[in-house]
Amino acid sequence: MSAKQKMRHILDTIAEMFPDAHCELHHDNPFELTIAVLLSAQCTDETVNKVTAGLFQKYKTPEDYLSVPLEELEGDIRRIGLFRSKASNIQKLCRILIDKYEGEVPTSHEGLTELPGVGRKTANVVMSNAFGVPAIAVDTHVERVSKRLAVAKPDDSVLVVEQKLNKLVPKEEWTITHHRLIFFGRYHCKAQNPQCPVCPLLDICKEGKVRMKPAVKTKNRSKKTKIANEG
Fold it and tell me: Cofactor note, please (predicted)?
């Protein structure tokens, strides 16, 4: 099958597996989503949600984050990895929002990526989930799944993975595909112990077939041993 046919097969399969895939970071507005995604770097969404449950009660606006000493904000997010640099970036980000955007999160990709701690992935998440602009944010799950399914090459950069996905996935499906690939990678095609034996995409997954070979060999050896013993 062609690359686009293969991608269509992947999209249809993960749609059946995770029809209700969505952003799992808790938020009520673009500002909270920006903070949550910033905090999620090298950290699980589950941990971020536990921290932001209290954080978003204490801090409602950019002004709120700047009204406390940096050390206090660090303490509020201490359970998050890299909490010191993230706290610093949050306060710098809030200062820019106040000085340049009247306290509002910019609605352009360029404006978002200019903010401290906000990279391309974060900007894509905010653009797609907060502002309804189609985008595929390539996080660790999306990157891993794309490479395992040979949609991208093993040595492709995150940007190249995004570009390849954008080319193969219909634009109107970019955002939901982002969520479904994350769910597929987070709950099925895990970094450790992926569910290869029950994976509906095993037929097109080279890595999955390689992972399954030891199991097949072990099974064959067991059969031979059984036959020899019976003999």
Answer: Binds 1 [4Fe-4S] cluster.
